[in-house]
Design a protein that fits this description.
The chain has 166 residues and is α+β, with helices and mostly antiparallel strands. It contains four helices and seven strands; from the N terminus they run E-H-H-E-E-E-E-E-E-H-H.
Length: 166
C-alpha cells in the first residue's frame, strides 16, 4: 500500500526540520508513542501502543533514517513487532518545501507492508501525526485582551446585596 500525505506547517523550514529530528517532539506527535529513544545518529527505537481493529497492540521496533539531505528530505524505514497484532514494516520519504519565510509544506510518501487492517490503521495514524506535528510547531495565538468591566459608582449600585445591608 502507498499513501501520500501533505501538511502545511506554519513554521520556517529549519524549525520543521529540527522538529522532525527531535525525539521529544516526535514522541508528542506520534499517536500512541510511549517511548522514542535515539540510539545512534540516524537510528531510534520506539514503543507505540496502537489499537488495530479489536486488538490493542504494543509495537516495539527500530527506525532508521537514510538518504538525508538536510534540511530538505530524508527516508525513514521502520519495522516492529506487535505480538498478536503481527509484524509491521514500512517506510516513508519525507520532503520539506519552504512556502514563504514562515510556512513549510511537509510531504510524506508512505509505503507500508501489512494486512488490510494494519494498512487502514497506518493511514489513520499518519493523518493524526501530520495534524499533531503541525499543531506542535504552530506558534501560540496571542491572547485577546479583555477590558476590565466598569463598575458604576457606589450610589448607583443596585441589587439584593445592597438592599440587605440597607
Amino acid at each position: 500500500m502507498q499513501m501520500n500525505e501533505s501538511q502545511l506547517v506554519p513554521a520556517p523550514q529549519d524549525k520543521v526540520w529540527a522538529g522532525l529530528n527531535d525525539a521529544a517532539v516526535l514522541t508528542k506527535c506520534i499517536p500512541g508513542c510511549q517511548k522514542l529513544e535515539v540510539t545512534a545518529p540516524n537510528e531510534m527505537t520506539a514503543t507505540v501502543v496502537v489499537k488495530v481493529g479489536p486488538v490493542k497492540a504494543n509495537f516495539s521496533g527500530k527506525v532508521t533514517l537514510s538518504d538525508i539531505e538536510a534540511p530538505n528530505s530524508y527516508r525513514i524505514s521502520g519495522e516492529g513487532s506487535g505480538g498478536v497484532a503481527g509484524f509491521a514494516k514500512g517506510g516513508a520519504t519525507v520532503k520539506l518545501t519552504a512556502e514563504g519565510p514562515e510556512a513549510t509544506r511537509l510531504d510524506g510518501k508512505l509505503a507500508q507492508l501489512g494486512g488490510r487492517l494494519i494498512d487502514a490503521t497506518a493511514k489513520k495514524l499518519a493523518g493524526e501525526f501530520f495534524e499533531r506535528f503541525a499543531a506542535e510547531l504552530t506558534p501560540p495565538a496571542p491572547a485577546a485582551e479583555t477590558p476590565p468591566a466598569e463598575e458604576p459608582p457606589g450610589d448607583e449600585k443596585k441589587g439584593w446585596f445592597k438592599k440587605l445591608l440597607s
